[in-house]
Design a protein that fits this description.
TIM Barrel, eight-stranded mixed β-sheet, eight-stranded parallel β-sheet, Urease, subunit C, domain 1, alpha/beta
């Protein structure tokens, strides 16, 4: 059904709530109408007084429901995109791990093939390369065997082989060759994020001058905040050029830190991510991430050896709920962090991320309690509770 109207809903429009209806025609939003819309003859879906939000955009997600993007297969990608679509995600970046060049090449090729064929669930918007150009001091759950200092020739070859596929790259800006890589990425319009880094404040500022514009899982796997050396975190909190990701699961950061980020980051510069790994949606047990054993207990994933947090089991649906509960933000305000802000970061803001005429009909219908009921990608229903 590509022509329909969703009525009797609270619509999140640019951080505000509009009671009314949204009309979809041929995969795009045709109109947003306050109050009762005129009879159009189109099929009507009753939202039962719930919320209609822009579909969630997850720029940092490794997998879900037993599959990982590093599996580099269509079956795995179908599993991941289906699972997260059931929780309101309409676009995601296939996020890689610090692995061998060959494994990274395989993941890039698989993602490129996937995005150029019909995608039956959530849309794969591109790839987020998390590593391998990170700090040996802040590996987190990344595999130290494959860590490397920035190699611009590798990156240029990956980009040449798959033009337009890489949408974001995470690196440690203090490593040799990083500033040159950052400048090149910025020239290509690729988001550059600091992460798994020991960067001091002045290094972060130099990186931002070169084009760095984001930070992955803020407060996690990076040099922390100190009053005499503000560090990586100090730069993220105070430099308005830098977007801040937050994993709003209550394990990676305290609720008070969510409130802090919500207060200090300007409009447009804070975004929700899941950093979900293959264990998301499954039961406690033994799993793997980036070639390393992971134990999930009470829904929290940690490296079996060492105990570092290893991604999450979060969904964007639950990230939104947790952030709202922690901060007291309204649903429309928080939805911007899950849709418009990530869309803008990866260059999709003109196509998706908000509910407005002419945008892709990427929509999620939720109950008043924020339980996902339906998900549409380009006007096509990809999930119905």
């Amino acid at each position: 059904m590509q022509q329909f109207r969703v009525s009797n809903v609270n619509i999140a429009v640019n951080g505000q709530s509009v009671k009314g209806s949204v009309t979809v025609k041929d995969g795009v939003i045709a109109s947003v109408d306050a109050g009762e819309a005129a009879e159009s003859g189109l099929p009507v879906i009753d939202g039962h007084g719930g919320w209609l939000l822009p579909g969630f955009i997850d720029v940092h997600v490794h997998g879900g429901y037993g599959a990982d993007f590093m599996d580099a297969s269509r079956e795995a990608y179908d599993t991941i995109t289906k699972f997260h679509a059931e929780h309101g995600t309409t676009t995601m970046l296939a996020t890689t791990m610090t692995e061998s060049q060959e494994r990274i090449r395989q993941a890039l090729a698989a993602a490129d093939d996937y995005r150029q064929s019909p995608m039956p669930h959530a849309r794969l918007g591109g790839v987020h390369l998390e590593g391998p150009f990170i700090s040996p001091d802040w590996m987190g759950a990344q595999n130290p065997e494959f860590r490397a200092d920035p190699q611009l020739d590798w990156l240029k070859q990956w980009h040449a082989d798959h033009p337009g596929l890489i949408k974001q790259l995470t690196l440690a800006p203090e490593r040799e060759g990083a500033l040159e890589m950052i400048a090149w990425l910025a020239e290509q319009g690729i988001a550059v994020a600091a992460g798994h880094t020991d960067a001091k404040y002045d290094v972060m500022e130099a990186a931002a001058d070169a084009g760095l514009n984001s930070a992955v899982h803020t407060f996690n796997a990076c040099r922390g905040l100190h009053h005499r050396e503000p560090g990586t975190v100090g730069a993220v909190l105070t430099d308005d050029r830098i977007h801040a990701e937050v994993i709003a699961d209550g394990h990676h950061v305290h609720d008070a830190i969510m409130r802090l980020l919500g207060r200090v980051k300007p409009d447009g510069k804070l975004l929700l991510i899941t950093d979900a790994m293959s264990a998301a949606g499954l039961q406690d047990g033994q799993y793997e991430l980036g070639g390393q054993a992971v134990t999930m207990k009470d829904g929290v994933c940690r490296l079996t050896v060492g105990g570092n947090l290893a991604g999450s089991t979060l969904t964007m649906e639950n990230a939104l709920k947790r952030f709202i509960a922690a901060t007291g933000w309204t649903v429309p305000q928080a939805s911007v962090l899950a849709s418009a802000n990530p869309a803008a970061l990866i260059g999709l803001g003109d196509q998706t991320g908000s509910i407005a005429a002419g945008k892709w009909a990427d929509l999620v219908l939720l109950t008043e309690e924020l339980e996902v009921q339906r998900t549409w990608v380009g006007g096509l229903s990809v999930f119905e509770a």
